[in-house]
Amino acid sequence: MTPPTPATSATPAEPAGPAPLAGPAGAAPSRPSFVETITVYLRPRVLIVMFLGFSAGLPLALSGSTLLVWMRETGVDLGTIGLFALVGTPYTLKFAWAPVVDALDVPVLSRLLGRRRGWLVLTQLLLIAAIVGLALCDPAKAPGLVALGALLVAAASATQDIVIDAFRVESLPENEQAAGMASYVAAYRIGMLASTAGALFLVSGFEAAGLGKAAAWTWGYVTMAGLVAIGIVTTLVATEPAASARAMHDPAAHAAGSPLRRVTVAAVGAFSEFLTRENAALILAFVVFFKFCDAFAGAMTAPFVIDLGFSRNDYAAIVKGVGLAATLVGGFVGGTLARAYPLVTAMWIGALLQSGSNLVFAWQAVVGVKLWALTVSIIVENFTAAIGTVVFVAYLSALCHSPLHTATQYALLTALAAIGRTYLSAGAGYVAEASGWVTFFLLSAVAAIPSLVLLAWLQRTGHFRALAASAAAKRSVQDT
């Protein structure tokens, strides 16, 4: 049900990177005035990050839930639809090429725009090409080509996530990091809404204008490809982060020798540093399972609504209206929780809310085709999903406290988090077919138990106290 954790990490080469987001781990940050709380969201750097959040959120549904609606409308069976969760594999494996993005420059583009912006423009151009390619496929006649197109969209999107992670953390100073995180997550959700509700409205509009179903879907996807231009314009308007600009011209950055050797050194150092930490295995398991219950239910939410008897326009209207409002409110509530309370407290709140929200869809299956009930379900789901996403982003960012390896480590963590919506959720369609919708959503809530057990275990071992101590030590170094 929740979108994958938005790219919100770090790749800085200096200590100023991940420290700001480590604050929620337990330290008590200074409280800004009400005016400062509002105006920080209007600062140019935060606005740039916000638009990049939209660019990051836009492609996900085009190879996910929107594609599933297209497939279901063309008669593809639920089992095959469930297997299409596997096209999210690039989000799971993106840590494998994250060191490439960190260690190497893009020919011509990096020289003209800088290291981060050069990679951003490249991935955005690749996204446009991949989405247009997917638009030209027919799910009923060529599901293999559709799978390939969706896989290419996911690969380009995952690479864009890696670069945006680094750009955000390197661009924002400490007093703008919290605002950047909240606005990024909110814009990410808006980008997803544009490619779900927005795309569905477009398809319906094209059909109303006289296009056939196949042509309407094609032009709907082509229009979505055009929206990627928002990310390109944002990248061109933005300024290359100072840390990235210095690193690009630092002889030490090329001291490792050949490009392959530089990538290898970056990868080995990042992984070994993390895996030698205390409770590393528990932490990685928790990252895998925290979003599993949400992702398992989310894999079937769109087909469930269609099967229940709601029209495409009804679903899109509710998601775009009250669903958007609930997402925005939930995102900023999540940001407030992550700043006002110790991180472990915020994590418990997010975990319990996102598992409980699955129950509203079991209730929806009993109530049936009633718009008011679907409205309640979408409000609850979007509100709790946004809270869970923000606090999870804060946790992942706090884990990346080594400035030498932040981007690669964050890519590894978000890739592990994606396992829940790819491999572990691939059989959701078969479970739904075998159990029925009510039982399916009840089971999806029960699927939260592993993450709750791991959260309690990590809390008991002092993991969150260690994160707080690390954050405090890093702020002390920055203040001196």
Automatic annotation (TrEMBL):
Pfam (any one): MFS_1
Matching Gene3D superfamilies: MFS general substrate transporter like domains (1.20.1250.20)
Entry's localization field: Membrane
Alphabetical UniProt keywords: Membrane, Transmembrane, Transmembrane helix, Transport
Transmembrane among keywords: yes
GO molecular function ontology, one term from the record: transmembrane transporter activity
Name listed for the protein in its UniProt record: MFS transporter
